Amino acid sequence: MRHSFFYTQAAAILLIAPFLGACSDDRHDERLAAAGPNPSLSALMKVADADAGARKFGQCAACHTIRKGGADKNGPNLHGIFGKRMGQGSRAFSYTAALSNAGGTWDAQTLDAWLQNPQKVVPGTKMQFGGIADPLNRADVIAYLQKEAD
Ligand code: HEC
């Protein structure tokens, strides 16, 4: 009995392991396929999942809070950032001149570029972030940013 229990568990772990590795509990590949071949950003935003984005926000949380009235950390609080002017998410935060003077608005397009490579959107920004390479993972985070607003 003990043995068969062990083997059942081992088999279950072997079955689950590849999914954990690919993080596909969020149905990433299925959603990506649903967006069609070479999906545009707007096609990706249609299949984006804010709850999956909430989990992926874990890689931002060292520097950012997102709940309303949350503290600024290394980076500014991001509540309601979607639709705001760049460099104006938090009144109290000391933005670089580069970001305060950037002049753009945070929409799906600008956030997508920012989350891929902040320096490319605003040269001289102090957001030290390696970027999210996967386009659907970026879209998930953007959907979450959009949702975390009043
Ligand atoms: C290592 C710290 C760090 C990490 C990790 C980080 N950021 Fe930032 N972020 C910053 C800093 C610092 C700024 C302010 C940059 C400036 O003033 O030039 C910033 C600014 C921003 C802004 C602009 C805010 C505004 O008011 O205009 C957005 C949007 C943003 N970050 C989103 C994210 C998201 C989403 C993630 C995770 C995918 C992330 N950041 C990860 C440090 C970080």
TrEMBL record:
Keyword Signal: yes
PROSITE patterns the record matches: CYTC (PS51007), PROKAR_LIPOPROTEIN (PS51257)
UniProt KW Iron keyword: yes
Signal peptide (from-to): 1-22
Alphabetic keyword roster: Electron transport, Heme, Iron, Metal-binding, Signal, Transport
Domain Cytochrome c positions: 48-149
Gene Ontology molecular function: any one: electron transfer activity
InterPro entries recorded: Cyt_c-like_dom, Cyt_c-like_dom_sf, Cyt_c_1A/1B
Gene3D superfamilies, alphabetized: Cytochrome c-like domain
Any Pfam family hit: Cytochrom_C
Protein name: C-type cytochrome
Organism per entry: Altericroceibacterium indicum
